[in-house]
Amino acid sequence: MLNDYIVPGNRLELTSTRFSEESTEDLEGKAGAKGRIYHSKIYDIRSEEEIEIEMPIEKGKLILLPVGGEFDLCFYTSTGLYQCYSVVKDRFKSNNLYILVMEITSGLRKFQRREYYRFNCILDMKCRKLSEEEQEAYVSRSVEFLDTDLTLEDGVIVDISGGGARFVSDQKFDENARVLFRFSLMMDDKPQQFSIVGRIIKSNPKEGVPDKFENRIKFLSLDSREREDIIRYIFEEERKMRRKNSDSR
Asked: Would you say the C-alpha torsion 35, 40, 41, 46 has a positive or negative sign?
């Protein structure tokens, strides 16, 4: 059953694969072209073959996607990421919301463990080891424990996933140490800040680079929305890379 995997309120991405001959205009201009990505969420599930989603909005403008347009849908759910292909069947307004009726044209498939896919990158970050008192407070969840006035050390993230990251720093960390980990990702053309507590899995000297350490961290305090945002960032960056490689051929 479709609603065993996706439910109203789930966020999703639409990637255009083909527009119909109908005009692709939004309320103030053109809606885009093949390969463009839009963001929306599920409004209702009609049946196994049809769902309703909210019309995408970009920079305060409603994107009036055309009936007959074909899209690759990627759903962000509590159990992972799911993908299928679809066609815009209808559009209407309900309770001051503009709705698209999407006909599902393929089976729903899961991206197996994609939330743990490691995306290679170069991202500035900051971190510091938590004190014993802060670690104990974190484990017991007894108080709001982080002292935000303390200085954080610089580092560089070299890969990231929905579950953790690998980063290079000047400092060696003890295995299992709790670390405050801060970085930002460009989401929808603006930086989004993340402040996460993680556990050090490994911390070893970086090969060939004196006085540098390569560390792997597992995120502990990441909520579901933050995890979805990191996964969405990875997907968007991968798509940009694939598009760039395709254009260069």
From this structure: negative
Superfamily of domain 2-112: Electron Transport, Fmn-binding Protein; Chain A (2.30.110.10)
The pTM is what?
0.58
* pLDDT of amino acid 46: 94
Distances (CA, A) of 41 to 55, 75, 103, 192: 9, 8, 15, 20
- With bands split at pLDDT 50, 70 and 90, how would you rate the model's confidence at 142? very low
Token readout for 208 is 């060939």
pLDDT in tens, 218-246: 998 888 788 888 888 887 887 777 777 66
Domain ranges of the chain: 2-112, 115-242
166-213 tens-digit pLDDT: 999 999 999 999 999 999 999 878 899 999 999 999 999 998 888 999
For domain 115-242, which architecture applies? Beta Barrel (2.40)
Where do we find the tokens 């049946």? 47
Nearest-angstrom CA–CA distance, 167 and 187: 21
